[in-house]
Specification:
Elements (H helix, E strand, L loop, with lengths): L4 H20 L9 E6 L2 E11 L5 E11 L10 E8 L16 H10 L14 H4 L1 E6 L17 H24 L6 E12 L1 H15 L3 H4 L1 E7 L5 H10 L15 E2 L4 H12 L14 H5 L2 H7 L4 H14 L1 E3 L2 E3 L1 H7 E5 L2 E5 H4 L2 H8 L14 H11 L11 E5 L10 H9 L8 E4 L7 H13 L5 H8 L13 H9 L3 E2 L14 E5 L2 E5 L1
Parallel strand pairs: 4-5, 4-6, 6-7, 7-13, 13-14
Antiparallel strand pairs: 1-2, 2-3, 3-5, 8-12, 9-10, 11-12, 15-16, 16-17
Length: 523
């Protein structure tokens, strides 16, 4: 019988790849926190935890945990708050929270976790902020799962993975408490979520996940601080295509039809292909031109070896010297048609050149976005649907406070993302959520730098934590007439109907319900 060597070779390669995958995934769930650094009063740990992958399979993910620990703790010292940190967009594994090479966030966390909040200035009103635990998951695709694709801005799966890390991290921290190696949690501890850029969107998705899965009591949740996040991917896409530097009453240098952070779109589209079953018959080549793919972007992202700055430098070199890849040659002039470089440290992409003609024609036609596609199978409409499915603006009614921070001059994550949230929840601005746009007219990176220094070093955001901590959003309906029922519901956890029946979780049907002694309207 003639042997099919080609088939045998494919089987052998597949088997070897499986072995490599199994070896790469042979990571055990942690049974204790691993101490990695002590920085003043900040104790740094890492841990691995069980979760679900983007495809629904069991997966082990990794996380950083930072805990306040005074050099000489007293009997009254305790942890007063939990910070759920969602990190910003990264493309290198060295930038993940648990990486020993991530010096920036470790510096910021070290500045935040100290007894006197804000540049060493004692302010007892803000002590609850810094006497804290910070849990910062790596996300799937980084840390111990760097061999996997990162489901960038796939909000449902990422928020679940973050919360899995938070709950497991708290269990491991409790073991340290039991062993007298950590401070106990104060009886009235509270939790907050926050992040910037991708982290701002993930923080909002985590906020949604906590409320929709009835985790508020378990986590003593108070609210979120969300900085310049892509909450609405369609609004972000439309800004790139339509803005010519004059949106939101602020002048910028943005040019119509360009992305000022070109690696973002391939990350979004690759994640959509990996996340949604209705995308299974589509491939990356459906959406991006051969020239753009020949730059090496997908390999760079998969390797997790290049930061966003590294990638921009590689692209800039291609505009200067041209590119030869996969048997094709592009002159510097041809690369300059693909990319625009305001400076050596900045490379923008032209959608007309980076997208395939069919996809560009679809997204460039604003009328295609007047309605949401309902049928599956069309390569462009399916991607349109995926962008909408990753939005965290609509489809839910928050009831814990949210402090938004967003620059109107942001050309990477435009201010329209906040406006999309505001338009979806028009009755809550000022009480349920509010906006600080004082970073205007700073662009994304500058705004992010200010966000983190204001958060960790200067103490500026103490007032934001304080506002979140003050209470939950209510509808303003008068107090319940039945004072006995009001008192009962104030002391018991969970949600109740007005006639006193306890529900299994937060209600999904419109109506008025009671939570912690307050009437709350579900719209």
């Amino acid at each position: 019988m003639k042997r099919n060597h080609k088939r045998e070779l494919k089987v052998t390669i597949a088997f070897l790849l499986c072995l490599c995958f199994v070896k790469a995934q042979a990571v055990e769930v942690s049974d204790s926190l691993k101490e990695v650094l002590r920085n003043g009063e900040a104790q740094f740990y890492t841990f691995n935890y069980p979760s679900k992958s983007v495809t629904g399979e069991d997966v082990v993910l990794s996380s950083l945990l930072v805990a306040w620990m005074p050099q000489k703790p007293t009997e009254t010292d305790s942890i007063e708050s939990l910070h759920i940190y969602s990190h910003y967009t990264i493309t290198s594994d060295n930038e993940s929270p648990s990486s020993s090479n991530n010096s920036i966030e470790r510096l910021l966390f070290g500045a935040l976790v100290k007894k006197s909040y804000g540049m060493g200035i004692s302010n007892p009103d803000y002590n609850f902020i810094s006497r804290c635990i910070i849990i910062a998951p790596d996300y799937e695709g980084y840390g111990v799962t760097r061999d996997r694709s990162h489901p960038y801005l796939s909000q449902e799966v990422t928020s679940q993975q973050v919360l899995d890390g938070v709950k497991y991290g708290l269990k491991l921290y409790q073991k340290h408490i039991n062993d007298k190696r950590a401070l106990d949690l104060k009886s009235d501890w509270r939790s907050f979520g926050y992040g910037f850029s991708q982290g701002g969107a993930v923080a909002l998705a985590v906020h949604r996940y906590i409320e929709q899965n009835d985790l508020s009591d378990e986590l003593h949740f108070k609210g979120s601080i969300c900085g310049d996040g892509p909450y609405d991917l369609v609004a972000t896409m439309r800004y790139y295509l339509d803005d010519n530097g004059y949106s939101y009453d602020t002048q910028t240098s943005h040019l119509k039809g360009m992305s000022t952070m070109p690696m973002v779109m391939p990350m979004i589209i690759k994640a959509a292909l990996d996340t949604y079953p209705y995308m299974k018959d589509h491939v990356i080549e459906d959406y991006f031109s051969q020239q753009f793919l020949d730059t090496g972007i997908m390999d760079w992202l998969a390797s997790k070896n290049y930061s966003t700055g590294d990638i921009e430098k590689l692209w800039y070199q291609q505009t200067q010297s041209g590119l030869t890849a996969n048997g094709r040659h592009y002159t510097p002039e041809q690369m300059a048609e693909l990319f625009y470089s305001p400076s050596k440290n900045s490379v923008w992409s032209r959608f007309e050149k980076t997208f395939t003609p069919g996809f560009y024609e679809y997204v460039a036609n604003v009328e295609n976005f007047n309605t949401v596609p309902t049928e599956e199978g069309d390569v462009w409409q399916d991607m349109h649907r995926a962008l909408i499915d990753n939005s965290v603006c609509e489809g839910w009614e928050p009831w814990h406070r949210i402090q938004f921070v967003h620059s109107k001059g942001d050309m990477v994550v435009p201010f329209g993302n906040y406006l999309s949230f505001r338009d979806a929840h028009p009755d809550g601005e000022g009480e349920l959520y509010r906006i600080d746009d004082s970073f205007t007219p700073q662009d994304h990176t500058s705004a992010g730098t200010q966000f983190f220094w204001a958060l960790a070093a200067y103490g500026t955001y103490g007032k934001y934590f304080k506002w979140l901590d003050e209470g939950e959003y209510t509808t303003g309906i008068e107090s319940m007439e039945n004072s006995l029922l009001f008192t009962l519901h104030s002391s018991l956890p969970g949600w109740y109907t007005l006639d006193g029946r306890r529900l299994n979780g937060r209600p999904t049907t419109k109506g008025i319900y009671v939570y912690k002694g307050k009437k709350i309207a579900i719209k």
